[in-house]
Design goal:
CATH architecture of the largest domain in chain B: Orthogonal Bundle
Oligomer: heterodimer
Strand content of chain B: under 5%
Largest interface: A-B, 32 and 24 residues
Distance between the termini of chain B: 38 Å
Shape of chain A: elongated
CATH superfamily of the largest domain in chain B: MetI-like
Structural class of chain B: mainly alpha
Shape of chain B: globular
Number of strands of chain B: 4
Number of helices of chain B: 24
Helix content of chain B: over 70%
Order of helices and strands of chain A: EEEHEEEHHHEHEHEEHHEEEEHEEEEEEE
Number of strands of chain A: 21
CATH class of the largest domain in chain A: Alpha Beta
Strand content of chain A: 35-45%
Structural class of chain A: alpha+beta
CATH topology of the largest domain in chain B: MetI-like fold
Helix content of chain A: 10-25%
Largest sheet of chain B: 2 strands, antiparallel
Radius of gyration of chain A: 25 Å
Number of domains of chain B: 2
Number of domains of chain A: 2
Chain lengths: 365, 570
């Protein structure tokens, strides 16, 4: 089976909320998912990502817009004729059916012969590592196993598209990391175009070919994990993917393609690559904690600071620094245990100009 | 904004009816049934009470209220109902608290359960008969044991005692669910914050079970208000209550109208309770069932001494109930209890010769009623709980009406409505079955609605995404999941059809007679041995059939299936 592409064209959906009034859950969302791609909708809860996914599945009708799968308009098609596999957050296994009956449900509906069904079910259970569980009931197996049954049930019908609605949120941390690898491997092996919804940026970056960040029903930015991390377009994306320190210094454009940032009597000159930013009147500078460099001597580095708090996290140590009134978070990855700074210690801080990120001030979307 | 919304919803509901012919047909059919067997009889009864010579009048009702006897009956009924509510709730709470909060050994839990289930599945006079055997003129306890010559068993004290024993299991089942739902962590938390055990109980456990207590009180109040069997035997002449007065008015004086007026007086507190209860249940209980049970509390919220007191009390009380049933059985196999204690099977011979017709009739009616009632409950429950159509709320309220009203009212209303053309079905099996179906099928409605609420909508969406159409989803997912509701509905209708009397006593005839009515006749003929034998037979049949249904329920492979006992409570 060849992989298909998915297109959303101007999808809109609003709900009536008892307190907030009309809520635009999905506000003019258009996107294209390439064939065979694992595409993630990432955003905080209530950003509209799940609603968008449910619209693609056909569980909700959009107020406006179109859904095209392999170029075919699916908008008015019922959920049961879209041939889409859906993995629910709570798995939604049929509690009265065995694992075998759960997985074979979709095949029985499609009237496959018993022999075909048994073969397909055996194969898919083998694939998710659940052979021998055929006659168990959902409540008799663990959460992680239920999750795999849900996955098996969705892929066994050979869907054109796989949709995942926060499938890992009910698992514990270790299992979450393991299972997301499993999902990724399975998806690549089957080459099914997939859309994955999560609020966990790490999960999104680990699993996806491409990520779309959503906020308040709108798409904020789309791109690969690296794009979003290194060149966020807004403060929201910068803060949602990874962490960000806002730098307090004044930002001045001195020429069309260079910016001067004054910070604690130190001047940084940063080349301005994005022409759109060059036109903006008010710019703000940011830096990620892992790019804040620390020096044991207070006079080393660009400016001085004091260690306020220190958290040892194993592979890294996190510091909260005070530079004047400004709080900066720094992360140090270190090889030996000797390189520790203690609270109260005065240290030098330096920033590399190429790591400073410039964003339009106040652009919160 | 809200108006637009309501309008849009109406539009949507109407559209559902237009688009879905199956929905239209079933909604229409249910409304025809509701109109015929719930609204029509009640309206006929209201018109008899309030319309005189073509004009609306209050004279009948005011005459009834001002008559000294009737007023006394009303006051007696309310007092009795209030006291039964208080004592029954208290007793139910003690039992529930003991069951949930003290680690009783299995055997004793079984004993408690058995003695609590027995009153729920017994014909109405069992406690009353046992009371007379124990405390009557030649009673086992009063005469033989204590040598009291003039102890009067008849009156309010006995009625109160017998009704409390008969109805407290309802409170027990309601409160047990509430108490079991309280996360022990919450109590542990209060304990760790330095509260004493008593303070934890007063400030945490009790407030959390308050809505349950109120609900249990109302259920018992309504049950006692409607009960007519116990006062008929035990109240005596000096303690008249409304349901028995209404019954005597009709059967004794052939005054249909007078009986209707009297039972109508009963309607007002009954409706008040119905509305109060809807309000209470409508508001959210504090206790939420998350399905994520907290760890079992290791610090028990009762001290060892107090626990022992509770357990001993409950066991003694259970033994008292069991003693009543043993006594009943004993009385059914001796010549004449209190006078001649030689073993005999003659009472059972009467039951299986003279009484055979009533057994056959009751089984036929209960059998048909069970199937029809179970189906009716699931269909109405599914419509009300799942579908969106105009008149849905009205359907829910009307469908629960006959269940909530005292049986006497329902019986008299049926008698008035179906005695004359256009629908003359008094004396047929149909009218009795209809009465049971509309009255007790309602429990099936509530169970179905409750189960439907528990089914996560994503389960049906999962079925759709796997390619199943709405009919396939209904057949393969929804029906199996609500099957437990059908079975428990079957059980409830069967038990009630075997044991009820308050409504159907007005509906029996020579052609169709019920065991419970036979028991009453034998009581009035003072053939207590035969009455006991009948009662034992009914208990036996109910135990066999409900065990069968429970087996069927446990065969259903549904982990969320409610147990039969939990259904009897509401």
């Amino acid at each position: 089976m060849t992989a298909v592409d998915i297109q959303l064209l101007g999808i809109k959906k609003s709900f009536h909320h008892r307190v907030k009034g009309i809520v635009r859950a999905v506000d003019d969302v258009s996107l294209t998912v390439e064939p065979g791609e694992l595409f993630t909708l990432l955003g905080p809860s209530g950003c509209g990502k799940t609603t968008a996914l449910r619209i693609i599945a056909g569980f909700e009708n959009p107020d406006e817009g179109k859904i095209l799968i392999a170029g075919r308009d699916m908008t008015s098609l019922m959920a049961n004729s879209r041939n889409i596999g859906f993995v629910f957050q709570n798995y939604a296994l049929f509690p009265h059916l065995t694992i075998h009956e759960n997985v074979s449900y979709g095949l029985k509906v499609k009237r496959f012969s018993k022999a075909e069904i048994d073969k397909a079910v055996t194969e898919v259970l083998e694939m998710v590592g659940l052979r021998g569980y055929e006659h168990q009931f959902p409540h008799q197996i663990s959460g992680g196993e239920q999750q795999r049954v849900a996955l098996a049930r969705a892929v066994v019908i050979q869907p054109n598209v796989l949709l995942f609605d926060e499938p890992l949120s009910n698992l514990d941390a270790k299992l979450r990391i393991y299972t997301r690898g499993e999902i990724r491997r399975l998806q690549q092996r089957l080459k099914i175009t997939s859309i994955y919804v999560t609020h966990d940026q790490e999960e999104a970056m680990a699993i996806s070919d491409r990520v779309v960040v959503m906020n308040q029903g709108k798409i904020v930015q789309a791109g690969s994990a690296e794009d979003l991390y290194f060149t966020p377009k807004t403060e929201f994306v910068a803060g949602f993917i990874g962490r960000m320190n806002a730098l307090p210094g004044s930002v001045q454009i001195i020429q069309d393609n260079t910016v001067r940032v004054e910070l604690f009597n130190h001047t940084y000159r940063i080349p301005l690559l994005d022409p759109e930013l060059a036109r903006a009147e008010n710019l703000k500078a940011f830096i990620r904690p892992e790019f804040v460099n620390l020096h044991p001597g207070p006079t080393e580095g660009d400016f001085q600071g004091i260690v306020a708090e220190r958290s040892f996290l194993g592979e890294k140590t996190e510091y909260l620094l005070l530079a004047g009134e400004t709080r900066l978070t720094a992360v140090a990855y270190h090889a030996s245990s000797g390189e520790a700074y203690l609270p109260g210690q005065k240290i030098g801080i330096s920033l590399q100009e190429e790591n400073i990120i410039l964003l339009r001030n106040g652009g919160n979307k | 904004m809200p108006e637009v919304n309501i309008k849009a919803r109406r539009e949507m509901e109407l559209n559902n009816l237009r688009k879905d012919p199956a929905l239209l047909v079933s909604v229409t059919a249910i409304w025809v049934l509701l109109a015929l067997f719930i609204l029509f009889p009640l309206i006929r009864m209201l018109s008899i009470v309030f319309v005189q010579e073509g004009r609306i009048t209050l004279s009948e009702i005011s005459a009834a209220l001002l008559g000294r006897n009737q007023l006394k009956a009303l006051v007696n009924s309310l007092t009795l109902a209030f006291l039964v509510g208080v004592f029954g709730t208290l007793l139910g709470f003690i039992f529930a608290f003991t069951a949930v909060r003290s680690n009783l050994p299995r055997f004793w839990v079984r004993l408690l359960d058995a003695s609590i289930i027995l009153p729920l599945i017994s014909p109405p006079f069992t406690t009353a008969i046992a009371m007379i055997f124990s405390f009557g003129r030649r009673g086992l306890i009063t005469y033989e044991l204590l040598g009291l010559k003039n102890f009067n068993v008849y009156g309010m004290h006995s009625t109160l005692f017998a009704e409390t024993i008969t109805f407290f299991p309802i409170a027990y089942l309601t409160l047990k669910a509430i108490l079991a739902g309280i996360d022990p962590n919450v109590e542990d938390m209060a304990f760790s914050l330095g509260s004493s055990r008593r303070r934890v109980f007063r400030t945490v456990t009790l407030p959390l079970s308050l809505p349950g207590l109120a609900n249990a009180f109302l259920l018992l109040f309504a049950a006692s208000l409607a009960d007519f069997a116990t006062p008929l035997i035990l109240a005596g002449n000096r303690f008249p209550v409304l349901p028995t007065e209404a019954y005597l008015q009709i059967t004794g004086l052939y005054d249909l109208k007078g009986g209707a007026v009297l039972s109508f007086v009963l309607l007002i507190p009954a409706v008040a309770v119905f509305l109060l209860q809807r309000y209470l249940v409508g508001r959210k209980y504090f206790v939420t069932i998350t399905g994520k049970a907290g760890a079992e509390s290791s610090i028990k919220s009762v001290s060892n001494l107090f626990r022992t007191v509770l357990v001993v009390f409950c066991i003694l009380f259970s033994l008292l109930i069991l003693y009543f049933y043993v006594l009943l059985f004993y009385a059914s196999v001796v010549q004449a209890f209190g006078a001649n204690h030689t073993f005999t099977l003659k009472h059972y011979r009467v039951v299986f010769t003279e009484g055979l017709k009533s057994i056959k009739d009751t089984l036929i009616i209960a059998g048909i009623g069970m199937l029809a009632g179970g189906l009716y409950g699931v269909v109405v429950g599914y419509l009300v709980g799942k579908k969106r159509f105009p008149t849905r709320n009205a359907m829910e309220i009307v469908s629960l009406l006959n269940y909530s009203l005292p049986g006497t009212i329902v019986g008299i209303a049926y008698l008035i409505a179906f005695n004359d053309p256009p629908i003359m079905i008094t004396g047929t099996a149909l009218v009795i079955i209809a009465c049971y179906v509309m009255r007790y099928g309602a429990t099936g409605i509530r169970t179905t609605v409750a189960i439907l609420q528990q089914i996560d909508p994503s389960i049906e969406e999962a079925s759709a995404s796997l390619g199943a159409g709405s009919i396939t989803t209904f057949r393969r997912i929804t029906i199996p999941l609500i099957l437990p509701a059908l079975f428990s509905g079957l059980g409830v209708v069967f038990i009630r059809s075997m044991t009820a009397i308050s409504a159907t006593i007005f509906l029996v005839s020579i052609r169709w007679i019920l065991i419970t009515v036979r028991i009453l006749e034998k009581m009035t003929e003072l053939e207590l041995g035969v009455a006991s034998a009948f009662s034992i037979l009914v208990v036996a049949i109910v135990v066999i059939v409900t065990t069968g249904i429970s087996r069927a329920l446990s065969l259903l492979r549904n982990p969320g299936a409610p147990r039969l006992a939990s259904v009897l409570g509401g």
